[in-house]
Amino acid sequence: MRTAADVIIIGSGVAGLSLALHLQHYRVLVLTKTQFGAGSSLWAQGGVAAAVGEGDSPALHAQDTLAVSGGLANPDAVAVLTQEGPESVHELIRLGVQFDHDDGHLALGREAAHSLPRILHAHGDATGAELVRALGAAVQAAHWIEVVESTRVEDLVVQADRVVGVVARQHTGQDQAGQNQVITARAVILATGGIGQLYRYTTNPPEATADGLALAARAGASLADVEFVQFHPTALAVGSDPLPLLTEALRGAGAILVDDAGNRFMLQEHDAAELAPRDIVARSVWRRLQAGQRVFLDARSAIGAEFPQRFPTVFAHCQEHGLDPRHDPMPIVPAAHYHMGGVAVDLQGRTSRPGLWACGEVASTGVHGANRLASNSLLEALVFARRVSQDVQRCLGSHRIPSRMPALGASEIVRVDPGGEAADLIQRIRTIMWEQVGLVRTEAGLLEALQEFRDMAAAVAEPKAADVRNMLTAAQLIATAALSRRESRGAHFRADYPQADT
Q1: Which residue range forms the structural domain that includes residue 298?
Q2: Is 386 a catalytic residue?
Q3: Which end of the chain is more exposed for a tag (fewer CB within 10 A), N or C?
Q4: How large is the angle between the packed helices 14-22 and 376-396, nearest 10 degrees?
């Protein structure tokens, strides 16, 4: 069955939901491969960074953002992010987002590499869930939006160099997929999130399999900065997959990093100690783990008995794994957390392919460069969602498709897990990426990884699971870019080229 829409949005995180709400003059179809509102946004413990506090300014926020970017952030994009950020926050408040308050004022926390407190949180450490709740409720009430769940976009449809729709497949039951069908659209927007599941250790949910990056690459869209993968320094080192995140706000509240002898080691690594840029903290932890030590985040003195009230999400994760952070230091390991690179876009979110836009983590807007400032990611999704929607409206004008948009049909909401050969291939990809394309890279390791990826691709020409196809594509792109950048900068560290090019 062939269907049509004015706008197709692929993804239902903060970026996708915000985009849909801004496009009220069109028939909008939101496709999500899992359930509505799933994705990394829902899991985001960190807050929204914005210059809304007394003594703060967009200029100061921009200064902090540029300072950690390794010299690669686009100052114009950073100016857009920081200047338009406060209005995005106020828009969320008008929508019903319940940010935390202190004595009647917005409570502002401080996180790594911010010069002063400017992080808004909701329910302590459940900011992403609160944003998804409020945005999701508004989307469900919007008559112009149709959300179709359990639907995977297999490819973008390109005609005469323009993206004109998608090829989609809906899962109708456990391990049961429908037929591919073409859905045409006047505008297609990627809001598919990140790539965390490419790595053995990640804080990202199972659906973060680099789909948008692979879709864009196969459609011939330009990519940028794909070698820059941010590893969060403090994931809880337990046996789960993905690993629970220990939000940076813990260190902002005074939690410290200690080795297995109880030594606070970040004091000798950086003037800002635990609040140094994430890449510095992550590699400091990594070096000690590689040397056979264990590393812990110790919040006993800084937070102590207040932990359940101040950080209920983290507290619940710890309790689930037999830890009590009021009395126990929390074992940690770095984990793949955020992709600074992605589909190259301009300040309106346009890709190099007409008809295709990108927003959120899948897009490379230029605001992060080689290293992302904490809590700028949710802000980026919000600010650029409005910009993308404005540009789409300029391009489409006032015309809407004439007939009612047909639905793809109802389905049981399921997550289809690859089995057998596909599952084995995915685990092999994740292990190679962690070992050879992770926090510390070398030419020999990258070449070895690329050869293994080529061998896999040759052996499985038509993977049974789309995740394998997308993950192999993205893994080769990232490893190739990492091999080409013969320097160390931000989150990209080459042991054989440890200095940055001047």
Answers
A1: 234-335
A2: no
A3: C
A4: 30
Residue 399 lies in a domain: no
pLDDT at position 475 over 50? yes
Q: How would DSSP label each residue in 152-183?
A: EEEEEEEETTEEEEEEEEEEEETTEE---EEE
- What is residue 113's three-state secondary structure? coil
- Domain of residue 443, CATH code: 1.20.58.100
Give 245-259 pLDDT, tens digit per residue: 999 889 999 999 999
Model confidence pLDDT, tens digit, residues 429-472: 999 999 999 999 999 999 999 999 999 988 775 545 678 999 99
Integer Cα distance of 435 and 440 in angstroms: 9
**Number of structural domains the chain divides into:** 2
pLDDT at 410 (0 to 100): 33
Let me know: does 46 contact 111? Beta carbons within 8 Å: yes
Instruction: Look up the CATH number of the domain holding residue 282.
Output: 3.90.700.10
The residue count for the chain? 502
Q: Is the pLDDT of residue 502 over 90?
A: no
CA geometry: angle at 34 spanning 210 and 311, to 5°?
Answer: 85
